[in-house]
Protein 1
Amino acid sequence: MTENSKTYQFQAETKPLLDLMVHSLYTNKDIFLRELISNASDALDRLRFESLTKPELLGQDDKLEIRLDADRAARTITVSDNGIGMSREEVIANIGTIAKSGTRELRAQADVGEQLSKLIGQFGVGFYSSFMVADRVVLETRRADAETAVRWESEGDDQYSLSDAEKSGRGTTITLHLKPYDPEAGIEDYTDKWVLARIVKQYSDFVSYPVVYTDRREGGEVSVEGEKGENAVIVEDKVLNTMKPLWTRPPSEVTGEEYVEFYRNMFHDPGEPLLTLHLRAEGRLEYQVLLFAPPNAPQDLYYQSTETELRLYAKGVLIMERCAELLPRYLRFVKGVVDSADLPLNISRQMLQQDRHISQMHKWITAKVVNEIVNLSANDPERYLRLWAQFGRTIKEGVMADRDNRDALVSLLLFQSSHDPEKLTTLKDYVGRMPEEQQQIFYLTGDSRGVVENSPHLEAFKQKSYEVLYLTDPVDELVVQSLPEFEGRKLKSIGKGTVELGSGEEQEQQKKELEEQQAQAAGLLELLQKRLDAHVKQVRLTNRLTTSPVCLVAANEFDDSPFVERLLQRGKGGGPKQRRVMELNPKHEIYSKMEERFRQDSGDPVLNDYADLLFGYALLAEGSEITEPVGFNRVLVSLLARAL
Ligand code: ADP
Ligand code: MG
């Protein structure tokens, strides 16, 4: 300590925070450097700002920069800037006191006993974070408009000392006397050039001032100072950050290759993004957005644990690596950067969730992303198909989850259909192909195109040449159920309820005919129903079949299809099945023969065998499993034998 040194107690509120830092178990201690560099960058910003009214603060060829210097032998590193600096009073007010709401919040939370290590990651912890890696910190600073400098020093206990200091230029120099190298405690060797370079790259790459590392090497022939000899030290400046936040440049000045290059570097993905969206929001909130849709879906896209790779920056400083608050969950595949001038470094997750600005940003960015995908689908359908193949399911989630952008998302949906085996169709194109008298959009769900295509439910639609959408993704059914109509047409499963085909007149006619037949067949239908009561709710005649004798349908629109039912059962390990409706084709030979038998002898046991067989057949035809395969086989064999 120097003679004029004076000791001060930290403000009462500060001590516990310092304690937290000193004894921190938080593993990501590297962030101390981010904090110091960001403070330096702020100080340079402030100098620039003050020099607008006091031009004398800036010299002619004043290079604004942040410097890092390491001394391996002494185990110190130094972070310095030639920014605004601090007066003695400012040092006391800024460094000896907790003024920041974020830090205070951190302390409040820590008091409540939340896990500190988690909290440090969420809150920017500012200057004090240096005590995570250093057991003594010395700060020397000279305000830009002052003649004298001041030295602040502390060991992170309950006091600090202030004294006058010699400092030639304006700005602040912070020297950390590092704790011993201890990788297990997260303390890297911060005197190592590569360690520093890595941390700067990770957190401070886009800070707009150069972060210059003073590289000293021995063994050169001529040192910078011009000394000659074997062991002359070469001192070389290395700028560690690129300072080029692509997103702050006007989009018109960035080339496609630059975007691709940036994407590859930042997200370590050799591929080329399917979508690039670069925007600047201006107005009450200013922020830049640079987003990408990656070329491939990650393995864990549908896991609960998957996290959005959206990085949140405040003026070029990374404040959150995975900011889920800026996009809805269904757009979790989008990667990129949002940089806001208005966010404090120490914003926490909790604060983000409550922040009104953030929710406005969320809304704006979401609409822009959806809109950009819609543009892609219109302007580059081939590329859109690739995006659909990777992320189509998340778009379906969006249809169900995002009311604000629902129409746009619905326009993005693609389905297989009976129209073209090679191509997917949009709902709009489907509607465009509908014959005039068709009133509904028809769909059928099933495991695969092959199964759906051969389903008996389709027969009457094929005959009428009505297009049917084939929904082969398990979530499709939920999606269409959340969508009662599209452009005024109802979406209708042809595996559920009754079907209405043709014009109103035709429908009336068919209905009447069926009712008459049904009345005549009441006895037989009742017998079959009785036999199959455990499995089916009702047995009735239908107009939906042309060549098949029988099929099963859900009793009403909101019942699950067998496809979804199977999925649900798989998930829950069985469970009661819904009883469905068995529909018989009155035009089929089997039906007429059964009816004849029934008329001759209403107690003929062969009718029960037929009931079992038809039920089993209907299950197989739609791709379901037979409920009682052994019984089914026995009946089948005995009927085959008799038929010979
Ligand atoms: P924050 O940056 O969020 O305000 P910090 O704990 O990082 O919190 O810093 C506290 C204050 O100390 C800053 O607001 C600033 O006034 C002052 N300060 C810290 N580092 C510097 C610096 N390099 N130059 C000038 N002032 C600084
Ligand atoms: Mg700070």
Protein 2
Amino acid sequence: MDDPLSPGPPIDRPIVIAANRLPVMRTNNGNWSPSPGGLVRALYPMLRERGGTWVGWTGDPDDNADPFTVEGVNLHPVAISADEIELYYEGFSNDALWPLYHDALRESTYSIEQRDAYYAVNERFARIIAEISPEGSVVWIHDYQLQLVPGLLRALRPDLIIGFFLHIPFPPVELFTRLPWREEIIRGLLGCDLVGFQRPTGATNFITAAQQLLDAENNGDVVLHEGRRVHAGVFPISIDIAEVEEIAAGRATRQRASRIRARLGDPEVIMLGVDRLDYTKGIGLRLEAFAQLLEDGRLDPARHVMVQVATPTREAVEHYKDERAEIERLVGEINGRFSSIGLPVIHYLYQTLPYDDLIALYRAGDVMLVTPFRDGMNLVAKEYAAAHIDGDGVLVLSEFAGAADELTDAVLVNPHDDRALQDAIVKAAEMHRHERRGRMAGLRDQIHKSDLQGWAARFLAALAEAGGLR
Ligand code: GDG
């Protein structure tokens, strides 16, 4: 019998990847080096090995850099102006789509200028991909910034096999239909042969939106649109497990982890949060739950400390500035009330740490708190389990993270329920060693079922099949 997880034989067609950002960054001496980040870790080595092309923005405004090659990978920059960064990226992508897709709506701020910039940048991507893709190429487009590209590209190049992966949730139709340009987005995605989602609900929501908004018919997970068959599939993303385990096993990491514990005052339980400082990640709720537990005496500042790493992100967007101010106010307030001299109860870092340091922190963390309101997957949860080669540690995980579908040995919690969140934190902090080890073994078995490279290979194999290559 075929292994359902086996990706099958490699694809012999040229591969073109498109993402908002190129996989490389300019270094100080003007050269290019691979940028950090999961997507790059998954796809760049594959392109380096077999050759291929990546289309994306360099990260600098008005950058008209010519196409170039790094380690055999062809890189095609897409120029984006300073105005477009404000309207297409910060505006439409991060201020309109991001909250809508994470059911984090405050008030709807939809602007036609932002939509026009989004369209213009998507069209530019489509044109460049159409110009550079060899006949019959396999094109894989990533994420919510580029949802119109498949449709625009299909019109220009019907010969291409086009796939799209959405890294964030696809919202229920009742929410999605708030967007004035909802049909346009669905039409864009229906330019694909395969649209991939993190969770089954994402695929179902997308199919329902296509039915309701465009009268598209469907047969199971295949949507029939303008005489074409568009597959919707589920591909939960993973991490580079071997890399995390290797770093975690290193002597330097072990030493760093014990130094961290010592510097925190050798507490009984280190609680850890690691997130981009994003309002969807539920950092504030977590801090409030921690404070309430200290207040009620269910946790003890002499025995329990929290480390919160909040990585700077989207600092130009107003809601992110507000979120940062609120988190920092809370940290100050809680530390003011519960710390003693030399021993803060919350250690807060608004920094991007080197990956090795992050893995050492994961190893030091006895309880990992991952409490987003809504999250496509959440790789931090998987990295924490991968780093715990010692077989110990407890993961508290929001039901609203995609990772909750797979990581059922976590302490699963509804972060909107403050009492439940407090109970989950106490349960994790007090969990008996035997149960901790049993649950961690379950988490580690689960993550070992699929790594990042396997995820990419499975998506590409499904895309080849959807495009009629198999
Ligand atoms: C989107 C979706 C989906 C964090 N702080 C530091 C640092 N990180 C790294 C982590 C992890 C990554 O950033 C964060 O990944 P997440 O999955 O948690 O979240 P998003 O950035 O929101 O990603 C998400 C993902 O796409 C993939 O499809 O899972 O749901 O929202 O890898 O390690 N890395 C370093 N220093 C830090 O301080 N080096």
